Each structure stands twice: as C-alpha cells, then as structure tokens.
Amino acid sequence: MSKEYETVIGLEVHVELATKTKIFCSCSTAFGGAINAHTCPVCTGMPGSLPVLNKQVVEYAMAVGLATNCEITRYCKFDRKNYFYPDNPQNYQISQLYLPICRNGGIEIETEKGGKKTVGIHEIHMEEDAGKLVHDEDGDVSVVDFNRSGVPLIEIVSEPDMRSPEEVIAYLDKLRLMIQYLGASDCKLQEGSMRADVNLSVREAGAKEFGTRTEMKNLNSFRAIARAIENETNRQIDLIESGEKVIQETRRWDDSKAYSYAMRSKEDAQDYRYFPDPDLVPVSISDEWIESVRAKQPELPTEKLARYQSEYGLPEYDAQILTGTKKFADIFEAATEICKKPKKVSNWLMVETIRLLKENAMDAEDIRFSPGNLAKLIDLTDNGTVNSTVAKEVFEAVFKEDIDPEKYVEEKGLKTVHDAGALRETVETVMKNNPKSVEDYKNGKEKAIGFLVGQTMKAMKGKANPEMVNEILKKLLSK
Amino acid sequence: MANRISDDTIEYVGILAKLELTPQEKERAKKDMGEMLDYIDKLNELDVSGVEPMSHVFPVNNVFREDIPTDNDGSKDALFNAPSVKNGGFEVPKTIG
User: Fold this and answer.
1) Are the beta carbons of B75 and A39 closer than 8 angstroms?
2) Mutate which of A49, A128, A141, A264 to disrupt the B interface (most B C-beta within 10 Å)?
3) Cβ atoms of residues A93 and A280 within 8 Å
4) How many structural domains are present in chain A?
5) What is the pLDDT of residue A264?
C-alpha cells in the first residue's frame, strides 16, 4: 500500500423493542411461538385492516432518544416504504422517513488510544419488522412465518463518525448496554434482537470528501462486525489502488467464509417511493409527555459506575465489570441490599460466577439464581456456618439450580465443625497415622503442618474450621 | 396533454410495480399517467405560500393502543386463503438471504 487511507464508518442499528405486543396490532411478540400463531389481519397485510400504534413503542423510542441526547420530534408521523419481498405481506414497510421521532443526538465512546470522542446520532425512527423466511433444505421453496411481522423496531442511524473496528465495537457496546438498562430491548445480536448494518467508505488520509460507500448486512456478532470492517476496508483500498471504482451497493457478509458479496443486481431498482401512511394519524409529543418519560429513566451505566465506587467503596475495576452487564448490576444491588456486604457480593460475581459462566458457555443474561440465595450464602460463610471451600461447592448448586443454601447445607450435612472435642479426636488420629510428618515438624520442618491440616480437613470431608484445626495441631505437636 | 410519459419511465414504473405490459397496455398507461399528472398540476395554479404542509387529512393526533396482548392463535385464519401451504407457513418460491 503506497498511500495512507482512512476508513469512515457509520452504523444503522436495528433494535427489537421489548413490548409485549406488535407495533400496530395486539399480537404477541413472544419469541418461539408456533409458526404463524402470533398473526392477525393487520400483521399479515390483509386488505381493509387498520393499524393502531402501540403507545409503549413511542415511549421506548423516546427513552432511547433521551438517553442518547437526541431532540425529540414534537410532531412525527409514519411513512410507507414500498418494496416486494415474500416476508413483507403489505408490499410496504411502515417506517418513518420525513419526521423521525428522534434527531441530532450522540454518545461518548472511549477510543482505543484511551481518548474520548462523540459518535453523532443522525436519527432514530420507529418501524415494523418483517416476517421470517425459512429455507427448505431439500425443496426449491421457502416458507414464510409472519410471527415476527410487525414486531416493533427502532433504527438508530449514526453519523459517519467512526474510524476503526474498535470504535464501532465501543459504540455498539455502549448503545447496547444503555438500551438494556432502559429495558427497551434485550439486544441479543445472535438472536437478532439487535442488528447492525455497517456503512463504510475509504478515502486518502486528509481528504475532505467521503469516498463511495457500501452497506454491509448480516453481521451477527461483534467479531463478525470487526472482521467484515477489515475485509471491506481492504477490498475498497484494493479497488482504488488498481484504478477501479467502488460501487455503491449492499453487500452480504458470510462469516464462515470471511468474505462478502453484492446482494442486489442492477436490474433490481431500489426506489422505495416513500409516502405518508394515510392509515396512521400523526403523533404529537408534548413537553409533559417527554418529562414523564425522562422521570422514569433508570440510572444509566455511566452513573452506576460512579455510584458503585462512591457509595459501596468498590474499586473501579469491580465497578466496571459489575455495570458491564445489566444482569450483574441487578444481582449486585439486590444481594447487597439484603446482606449489606458489597465487596463480598462483588467477589462472588467476579470470581465464581464468571468462572461458572465460562465453563458452561453462558452469558450473564442466562443467570438463573436469585440474589437472595447468594446473600444467604454470604451470610452463612461470614458467620462460620460453612468454610470457604464448602461455600464454593454450595455456590455451584445455587448457580445451577438456585437452591436455598441454608436448607442445602443442613440436608447435606455441610456445616463446619466447630466442636473442639471432635476436631481434637480427628487430629490425634491423623497424627497417629502420619508419624513421619509429626517427626519432621518436631525436627523443625514447619511446612509439615500444612500436610497434617490437609489430612485432617480430608478426614472431616472439608467441613472442619481450618483455623481451629491449625490451632489444635500446633498445641498437640508442641507437646 | 402537458405531461408526456417516456418509454423509459413506463418501463421503470413497470419494473417497480412488477407488471409486464404489452405494447398496447404501455401506450394506454402512458396516456393515463400523463392525464393524472396534468390533473395534479392543477394544484400549481393555487398560491399556497404561507400554508403549512399538511401531513394528514384528518385533524386527529395520538391514536394509541395499550400494550396488552391477545393470545389467539391466528395461524388458521392467516393461512385460510393461502395458495400454497407448507409446514404451517406460506409456501413461496425459494428466496436466498
């Protein structure tokens, strides 16, 4: 590469909102229903059916807009985007082109060089999702399932402000966390409740004009996004270097083959002929409505991060991990509320929970145990009912089946033995069976005591109070 | 007729509408569309400076639904008139992607 190039990236992020019903009808949005069960004349595009807007969709869109510092459009409306595809029963998608609900926002991200920069948000608009096409493996047909048709989406359109895969991931991460905190969506890339399309162009470093951009679709993970950005940057640079032109087109990323291909041929005219949807009346948003949504905004990640350090005295590192997923933050706050031991709750989440999540290839969102049971286990450990080794074992059961630690410890007989008589008896037996170690210790090899403690703990099936064992051993050995 | 629709335009609109027109139909459509545009052009005779653009014919705003689901199974009704059904869904020619 002879010249220096700069990559310019903007994102279109679609997020499925967490409403119970679809955007324009009362059909359920529940994932995984029987094929076409969640349908009605509205979401299957039957003639004569009338869409009615779900109020919660407007509130979620406003909530995301406020959190991303957007201006809320006081008077907004819906438009029809016309195109033919089997997953689109009306032959148009109801979307917003002329007056989207939010405009001119931005969020601050940390760049890879440790600095901060603001990624602008051009607009956020509300629209409906399309149905799902199931491709038949053997036959030459596809099957349409309209359960997803009409599920509410917001599309968050950024300004072309990002310059590297790292910045794109930082932006997406921040956006996702914010939306999860707002409860507006679960934002799962793999399941498609968050989808990102990447608009990318390259230009010579220092150039003022943007190059011709392409749009990349089908990016189902952060890793795929980063790989696709690198691949597309190189493809465009190669074209320019060899004197060819970048064609403005939509491309589809194939992550298993790590390459992309143009999705639409030139004969397929892309002309959506947008026009205002006459079936839907405009939405007028008052100051009072905006303020009521603002008042309901929960504490967002950045605020939580600061509070965990000031209020609970947690190190920044802990606070970052705990606020890094909503689930961790929720469990942390609930468990701390009960047991009042923030650092201990934090430790259980950061060490054992993360270890078990990794071992089971699970995400934090998949955690099923209740904060109450974690708090109980912390209390049991603190008051000496179980020792730290046993506590780990109990925690695995809490993690797996959300058992009540008190009952579990009782039933399995896991309570730590504090009975000095019983401990002394075991220690004496262990000493009798290991005369060599006893002699080593008496000859000044102090490390030998560790072995004897270990043997005693083993004989007590791990349930002894280790400090007491140590103490008794020392006393008996010094006789 | 002030508005003349070109062959290219009628070809393009045909592609957008997924319609295949015979040469006779094309000629008729060109005439119809020209007349429609002439009719709309009448609006240009009005002075609308100072009039706010209208976004809807009804003076009504904010018609909403509460977010409460119905749990009816709509699959039977949805598929009732489907030309072809497979595995509980509408069968369509194979699409990729």
Assistant:
1) yes
2) A141
3) no
4) 3
5) 67
Tell me the residue type at A305. Answer: L
Q: Is the pLDDT of residue A116 over 60?
A: yes
From A22, A80, A29, select the one nearest A53 (Cα to Cα). A22
Distance, in angstroms, between B51 CA and closest chain A CA?
17
Kindly state the DSSP code that residue A350 receives in the 8-state scheme: I
Give the structural domain span for A446. 420-477
pLDDT tens digit sequence for A81-115: 998 889 999 999 999 999 999 999 999 998 888 89
Residue where the block lists tokens 């051993």 = A473
Q: Are residues A143 and A62 in the same domain?
A: yes
Predicted TM-score of the model (pTM): 0.82
Q: Any idea what the Cα angle at residue A68 is, between residues A311 and A277, rounded to 5°?
A: 145
Q: Is residue A335 part of a domain?
A: yes
Q: Are A477 and A441 in contact (CB under 8 A)?
A: yes
Residue A408 falls within a domain, yes or no? yes
Does the beta carbon of B59 lie under 8 angstroms from any beta carbon of chain A? no
Q: Does any CB of chain A come closer than 8 Å to the CB of residue B11? A: no
Residue ranges and CATH numbers for the domains of chain B are: 7-45 (1.10.20)
A137 and A10, same structural domain?
yes
In a domain, A294, yes or no: no
Residues of B in contact with A138 (CB under 8 A): none
Residue A236 lies in a domain: yes
Q: Residue for token digits 């997406």?
A: A172
- Pair A96, A201 in one domain: yes
| Residues A241, A334 share a domain | no
Same domain, A392 and A268: no
Same domain membership, residue A316 and residue A188: no
The Cα A403–Cα A396 span in angstroms is 10
- Interchain contact B69–A (C-beta under 8 A): yes
Q: Chain B contacts of A85, Cβ < 8 Å?
A: 95
User: What distances in angstroms separate CA A420 from CA A26, A152, A424, A463, A466, one per listed residue?
Assistant: 67, 65, 6, 13, 12
Kindly tell me the sign of the dihedral angle through the C-alpha atoms of A321, A327, A330, A331.
negative
Residues of A in contact with B10 (CB under 8 A): none
Q: Which residues on B lie below 8 Å from A38 (Cβ)?
A: 74
* Among the listed residues A214, A300, A306, the one whose alpha carbon sits nearest the alpha carbon of residue A12: A214
Contact criterion met (CB < 8 Å) for A28 and B71: yes
Least confident of A355-364, B16-25, B51-60: B51-60
Domain identity same for A449 and A404: no
Chain A closest CA to B56's CA: distance in Å?
Answer: 7
Q: In the prediction, which pLDDT does A266 show? A: 46
Residue A300's SS3 state is: coil
Of A365, A392, A412, the domain-final residue: A412
A35, A139, A280: residue with CB nearest B89: A35
Counting DSSP H helices and E strands in chain B, the numbers are 3, 3
Q: Which of A245, A266, A289 is the last residue of a domain?
A: A289
Comparing alpha-carbon positions, the chain A residue that sits nearest to B14 is: A269
- Please state, in angstroms and rounded to a whole number, the distance separating the CA atoms of residues A353 and A346: 10
CA-to-CA distance for A328 and A371, rounded, in angstroms? 10
